[in-house]
Amino acid sequence: MGSGIYIAAAGAIAQSDAMDATANNIANAGTSGFHAERVSFKEVLTKAKSPDQLSVQANTGKTLDSQNGALLQTNNPLDVAIEGDGLFSVQTAQGTRYTRAGNFQLDSQGALVTPDGYKVLGENGQPITMPPTATNIAVTSDGTINADNQPVGKLKLAQFGANQLKREGATLFSATGAPQTSGTPPTVRSGVLESSNVNIVHGVVDLVKVQRSYESLMRVIQNYHDIDDQTAKTLGGPR
Question: Fewer CB in a 10 Å sphere around the end CB: N or C, the chain?
């Protein structure tokens, strides 16, 4: 079997990964705070007879598109968005996780939570809870939350490099290493939500391109199989 089939197989695996990521991006085009994921691959020298033969190295990693999504006005004071680089911190059963989605709400105990029930953390590392009698809630640009003009907490914002984050679900991320301390502090906007940064038209075009590349590579692999089968029949026939 020629080495070409291995090159085609590596390319097909790479395109399959890209297809999964692109499809997931499109599926979350309407998810608040969702940031698209991009798959990148690099060419590597194959360990084959030819020293100059190139192949694609699959699974070289996924990177987040750091471009902010558009801000949509909701006029709900518990809807908040981050302008710039940063993430909200939330408490999960697996530990602290991070998100750009700021569609928060109050649970039955007055704690600020995500739609999935994860408690939103303050700068002190503790969940933020509103007084039971609070009627007027406001969030300032630095993330301070006021209830009836009295501060009750400040949103814990964190900044990480893209290579420090790993996606968990649609909008949650785990992080490796300590948060970055340099850079411009993010600004918090209240009464708005960050929409997904996925461009649905570009996403569909990309998906079609990836699907066509994948199908072409699969045809190449099938052709190699057909050639091998025909060769085996020819060489194995009567002499």
Answer: C
**Using CA atoms in the order 194, 149, 125, 161, what is the torsion angle rounded to 10 degrees?**
30
Q: How far apart are CA 152 and CA 145, in angstroms?
A: 6
Token pair belonging to 35:
């940031």
Number of H helices, E strands in the chain: 2, 19
* Burial of 212: CB neighbours in 10 Å, binned 0-12, 13-18, 19+: exposed
Question: Which residue type does 39 have?
Answer: V
Tokens 């984050």 correspond to 165
87-92 and 119-120 as β-strands: parallel, antiparallel, unpaired? Answer: antiparallel
Q: Are 41 and 56 in contact (CB under 8 A)?
A: yes
How deeply is 229 buried, as exposed, middle or buried, from its count of CB atoms within 10 A (0-12, 13-18, 19+)?
exposed
pTM above 0.90?
no
* pLDDT tens string 96-110: 999 999 999 999 999
* Beta carbons of 188 and 141 less than 8 angstroms apart: yes
For residue 69, pLDDT over 80 is answered with yes
